[in-house]
Amino acid sequence: MKVIMKTRVAIVIFLLAALTLALTGCVVTSIYPFYFEKDVAFDSALLGDWTKANERWTFERAGETAYRLTYTEGEKSSVMQAHLFELRGQKFLDLFGPEPGDFGLVPARPAHVLLRVVKTGPTLEMVPLDYEWLANLLEKKPKIIRHHIVKVNGDKRLVLTADTAELQRFVRKHLKTEDAWKEVLKLQPDQAGSTRR
What we know:
Elements: H1 2-15, E1 29-30, E2 40-41, E3 48-52, E4 55-62, E5 66-73, E6 76-87, E7 90-96, E8 112-119, E9 124-128, H2 131-140, E10 147-152, E11 155-160, H3 164-173, E12 185-189
Parallel strand pairs: 1-11
Antiparallel strand pairs: 1-8, 2-6, 3-4, 3-12, 4-5, 5-6, 6-7, 7-8, 8-9, 9-12, 10-11
């Protein structure tokens, strides 16, 4: 049974290989979600259409506490699940792409992506956990959080394999680490044909 589980984890890790997301290059991805159900919140300020250059983010309500996020880049689009949650008074979004994609924000294989929500109005401002910072930290201290390095077309990509509790401990520990949260993604409310509520 352990061999089967290890094989499944290895397959999942391998399938996560091409996780090159275009916020600024690579973003940190995880096999496990970054939230527990008890942490989930809902903010109607997220609902509607947000834009940046040729990207469109459309948040719709999906049940009591979840969102359906349609991410569009140019002519391509994909649907993801999004959960807003709180850790130590800070808001975060866990994005999960159950269907594989090969462009922009959409992971090449199912994976969780973490965004720290800085502002929800009048602009939507979010910050991903910085990939380069984490890669450098793991190079110096490889046991600080469970992860796996996969090779994709000669490039190395890291995938977090820690469970949710370990992920949250890590995020809480680095809430005030400036280098961990550098690149702000700013989205404007869509003025033309907006479905803002």
